[in-house]
Amino acid sequence: MRHGKKFNHLGRTSSHRKAMLSNMAASLILHKRIQTTTAKAKALRKYVEPLITRSKAGTQNDQRVVFSYLQNKEATKELFNEVARKVGERPGGYTRIIKLSLSRAGDNSDVCFIELVDYNELMLQESSSTGRTRRGRRKKKKTSDDTTATASSEATAEQTEENKTDEDSSKEEN
């Protein structure tokens, strides 16, 4: 039975799993985006997000703890210098998993991208250009075409009213 066993063992021994996650985390930090299986990406998210949170404080003890997880000087420097500055305001959720429609040829496992959120320029452009919330209703904007259309409809309404009053006054005279 697997009561209380919350993480995926990924079919590996403990030391192999730790080494794999360490290497994947270093690659993610250095390259900002990697392609892997969905199961590994979910395990990597749980591994790397606490390290990014530690990097925001930036103390020497945090650097030593993060290095003990990553075992890579370049990745640790990159994390504390560049990544920590970029995600400083973000309260969490530093990674994004994008599932791909294809499967791996060898074992037909689901493939995905895992990336650092603040480094995907395409997604940043899309999110800044929309400016809408998920719960907001869509409001009709009055464009210049709408304003001219309403102005012309008001003018025709006034003309019809004048025509009616002219017809009424001519009927009263008869």
Automatic annotation (TrEMBL):
Keywords, sorted A to Z: Ribonucleoprotein, Ribosomal protein
Membership in a protein family: Belongs to the bacterial ribosomal protein bL17 family.
Protein's recorded name: Large ribosomal subunit protein bL17
Complexes and interactors: Part of the 50S ribosomal subunit. Contacts protein L32.
SUPFAM superfamilies associated with the record: Prokaryotic ribosomal protein L17 (SSF64263)
InterPro entries in the record: Ribosomal_bL17, Ribosomal_bL17_CS, Ribosomal_bL17_sf
Cellular component, GO, one term: cytosolic large ribosomal subunit
Species this chain originates from: Bernardetia litoralis (strain ATCC 23117 / DSM 6794 / NBRC 15988 / NCIMB 1366 / Fx l1 / Sio-4) (Flexibacter litoralis)
Chain intervals with Basic and acidic residues compositional bias: 161-174
One of the GO BP terms on file: translation
GO MF annotation terms: structural constituent of ribosome
Compositionally skewed regions (Low complexity) per UniProt: 146-158
Biased composition (Basic residues): 132-142
Gene3D superfamilies the record matches: Ribosomal protein L17
A Pfam family the protein falls into: Ribosomal_L17
Top-level lineage group: Bacteria
Record region (Disordered): 127-174
